[in-house]
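Please fill in the sequence for the structure shown.

STRUCTURE ENCODING:
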């Protein structure tokens, strides 16, 4: 049994607890938060035996084998380094941090680490995106035109929740839509040029809540990406790749994947038994556990997370992409 401690008491932490519980051979036995009250509340709701605000004492326990870091992003690497000093396996929620230079140094230190270190990139385990990636691979060796649109609503209460870190650090493409930038890197590799415009467009919100960028790739492909957290009346996500003779549309493929759920509602269960597939985060946890069991590199790596952070910070205007090349 792999005994896991979760650092953080947010909704993301609860998602990790649920996915771990659906993974055979995993026991979430401890929750840590700087607020003991929050740790105890999450532990009580989830039936976890250990709730603490004493991190060093928790990490010193021999019966804790792995740790999931699910706190605010600016604490990710500092906590990860403490975990590594106690020689635990480590899974870090994305983004890996908000400090690019710190992330680069951390990636170097991981190379000599004896345990498994992985970063959450669960969209790489999404069946629709995997199918789309296969279709895109059939367009190999031709310049592509890619468009990504990511709009949703985040209320002022979302930014005020917790200790207020989201007000300053939750840029839309750093903390909220960063998974999609990792998808672009997964599909097309690192761009060679990024031109972006970003704004903090709403009063009372200090971080960037809307961005538009153009990405250029070495083979001549171009990607446009636009998104923001201000759009409530018409939330929208789409990802389209256009080649010379083919168009691959994420929204179309995603709609097709809904057929199973529609049939489940319309057809009596005695006549239709849909397959129970794990979520992308479930598959991420399974991959992490499998890497520990087989002592091999996980599918999602620290280097991938650093590349995604570089793109995230560049689109949000926190750094110039060319400065990090």
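FILLED IN BY: designer on duty
SEQUENCE:
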């Amino acid at each position: 049994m792999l005994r896991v401690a979760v650092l953080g008491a947010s909704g993301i932490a609860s998602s990790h607890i649920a996915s771990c519980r659906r993974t055979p051979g995993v026991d979430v036995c401890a929750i840590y938060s700087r607020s003991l009250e929050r740790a105890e509340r999450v532990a009580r709701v989830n039936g976890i035996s250990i709730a603490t605000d004493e991190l060093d004492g928790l990490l010193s326990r021999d019966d804790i084998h792995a740790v999931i870091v699910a706190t605010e992003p600016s604490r990710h690497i500092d906590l990860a380094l403490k975990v590594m000093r106690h020689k635990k396996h480590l899974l870090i929620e994305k983004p890996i941090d908000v400090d690019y230079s710190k992330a680069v140094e951390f990636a170097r230190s991981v190379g000599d680490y004896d345990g498994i270190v992985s970063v959450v990139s669960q969209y790489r385990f999404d069946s629709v995106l995997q199918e789309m990636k296969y279709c895109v691979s059939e367009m190999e060796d031709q310049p592509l035109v890619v468009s990504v649109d990511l709009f949703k609503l985040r209320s002022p209460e979302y930014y005020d929740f917790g200790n207020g870190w989201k007000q300053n650090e939750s840029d839309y493409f750093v903390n909220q839509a960063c998974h999609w930038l990792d998808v672009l890197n997964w599909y097309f590799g690192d761009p060679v040029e990024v031109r972006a415009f970003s704004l903090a467009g709403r009063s009372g919100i200090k971080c960037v809540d809307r961005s538009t960028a153009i990405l250029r790739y070495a083979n001549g492909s171009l990607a446009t990406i636009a998104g923001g957290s201000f759009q409530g009346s018409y939330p929208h996500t789409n990802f389209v790749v256009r080649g010379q003779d083919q168009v691959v549309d994420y929204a179309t493929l995603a709609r097709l994947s809904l057929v199973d759920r529609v049939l489940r509602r319309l057809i009596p269960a005695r006549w239709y038994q849909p397959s129970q597939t794990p979520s992308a985060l479930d598959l991420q946890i399974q991959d992490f556990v499998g890497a520990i069991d087989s002592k091999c590199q996980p599918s999602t790596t620290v280097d991938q997370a650093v590349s995604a952070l570089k793109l995230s910070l560049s689109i949000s205007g926190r750094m110039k992409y060319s400065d990090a090349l």
